[in-house]
Design a protein that fits this description.
Keywords: Signal. The longest helix is centred in the N-terminal third of the chain and has 26 residues. This protein is elongated. With about 110 residues, it is α+β, with helices and mostly antiparallel strands. Strands 1-2-3-4 form a four-stranded antiparallel sheet, with helices on one face. The model has no long low-confidence stretch (mean pLDDT about 80). Helix content is about 35%, strand content about 25%. It is built from two helices and four strands; from the N terminus they run H-H-E-E-E-E.
């Protein structure tokens, strides 16, 4: 291998490792409690936080995936943020009735 290829390979390896470390840090430092999830999803669904029941919650990287029940319906929601890398800040949740796709407001559709 040439010296230039070795440097490129080392840089790419360092980049991959740092990105995976960020994902791990975001997952491990998620600070969204069930009460936070209820409050945030209630706002998105137009109900009171007391009317929301968290059925399931899973954190992956910077996203928190939750299944909730509210107003007699079941919903799947994604909350982005709420970890050390986002300084605890979150974006508004994206929610959809169970069985329908989530419509992301991402500009990268």
């Amino acid at each position: 291998m040439t010296s230039k290829r070795v440097k490129t390979s080392v840089l790419m390896t360092a980049l991959v490792l740092s990105l995976s470390a960020c994902n791990t840090i975001a997952t491990k430092t998620n600070m969204l409690s069930d009460d936070d999830v209820k409050t945030k999803t209630a706002g998105a669904l137009g109900v009171q936080p007391n009317d929301v029941v968290v059925v399931n919650k899973h954190v992956d990287g910077t996203n928190t995936y939750v299944a909730v029940k509210a107003n007699g319906g079941e919903y799947n929601c994604v909350i982005n943020g709420g970890n050390l890398l986002s300084f605890g800040m979150t974006n508004p949740p994206t929610c959809a009735k169970k069985g329908t796709p989530l419509n992301s407001s991402s500009p990268f559709k």
